[in-house]
Amino acid sequence: MRLQRYLMTKKERGFLMPLTRANNTSPRNDIKMVLGNFNAQVDKEPVNFPTFGNYNLHSLTNDNGSRLIQFAVLRNMIVGSRFHAHQDICKSTWRSPDGVTFNQIDHILTEDKSNLMDVRPYRSANIDSDHYLVTACLRARI
Asked: How many angstroms separate the CA atoms of 58 and 66, rounded?
């Protein structure tokens, strides 16, 4: 852990520190999920497949995407929205003001892939935002 902290730049630590602190202070037996607008675009490279799946919109990885990959790999998490096959129009989570550009930048990360049945954005939900409502269908095993 100490070596990892020195390898990251100051900007990367600022992005990862609050998430890392919350992850480290939560009980180990709890199911951990991280949801949010990460502004992270991740490409379709096979090296990202175990963590990010194969179903995404982007052909390039941006800066936040690299940070999200690092966070997910270090904590053995997966990005749930990338493991479920949907049409491209049903993968986008953000629409630009011009109405032409669509991105998949809102993500749900979890440790257990078997409990995540489906993740998808709902474009018809009226939430007064340029982001679409992202929902997850979970299976609870007791």
From this structure: 13
